[in-house]
Amino acid sequence: MKIVLDAMGGDLAPRATVQGAINALKISTSDIHIILVGDEAQIKVELGNEIPDQISIHPTTQIVTMNDKGSKVIKSKPDSSIVQGIKLVKDQKADAFISAGHTGAVMATSLFLLGRIPHVKRPALGAFIPTQKGGKILCDVGANPDAKPKHLLQFAIMASMYLDHVEDIKETKVGLINIGEEPSKGSEMYLETHQLLDKELPNFIGNVESRNLFESEANVLVCDGFVGNTLIK
């Protein structure tokens, strides 16, 4: 598997990202190759004299900062590590792209270059939360601050599939993050979402207050991006 890593993404890049790539290769039991995309000179400084065989560099000349508008990066900084890294996936030269950088730029560029899964209305951001019972996923955590009930239904389905296929958690239970456990609580959008989830998902268990996130039996927790982003921060 070839994984593209945005070497310039994150507060401590490229030192932290390059070291993370090296550490990943040391503990990985899979046959992986990591493509570090970014400023070649800076990456080589962090790699030192010997570059592992499982690491290669894809040089770029531009860096996306947090002041850049995410939706404009694909045009304003086409030779950035984010745009070029995602292009490698689009061109089937890599299997996955990872970045700790500008989330909005990653989301927007992925949407433009890779597109959406058929029938998915909106992409979403999911945060996996490790627990003693395997883990939970909170979705959405920032991509859709103005989501509609039909979007939250799809978030629940996609998050359930993630737990099944990636974390091998087969028995999923969906909870709706809300200001109270009663079905009558919340804004109009959340009232409609509760009704829709209850109708469409046999594994929907109802509302979950944020203070009960870890104790709740729900391992798929859905909300709009504004609530989710506020919750994880």
Helix-strand blueprint:
Blueprint: E1 2-6, H1 15-27, E2 33-38, H2 40-47, E3 55-59, H3 73-76, H4 81-90, E4 96-98, H5 103-113, E5 126-129, E6 136-139, H6 149-165, E7 174-177, H7 188-200, E8 204-208, E9 220-222, H8 225-232
Parallel strand pairs: 1-2, 1-4, 2-3, 6-9, 7-8, 7-9
Antiparallel strand pairs: 5-6
Report a brief summary of the structure.
The chain is α/β, with parallel strands linked by helices and 233 residues long. It has 8 helices and 9 strands. The model has no long low-confidence stretch (mean pLDDT 95).
What kind of sheet is the major sheet? Answer: 5 strands, mixed
What percent of residues are in strands? 15-25%
Uncertain segments: none
Q: Structural class of the helix and strand makeup? A: alpha/beta
Structural Rg: 19 Å
* Largest sheet, spatial ordering of strands: 5-6-9-7-8
CATH H-level superfamily title of the largest domain: Isopropylmalate Dehydrogenase
Distance between the termini: 32 Å
Helix proportion of residues, in percent?
25-40%
- Spatial shape: elongated
**Which CATH class of the largest domain applies here?**
Alpha Beta
What is the CATH third-level topology name of the largest domain? Isopropylmalate Dehydrogenase
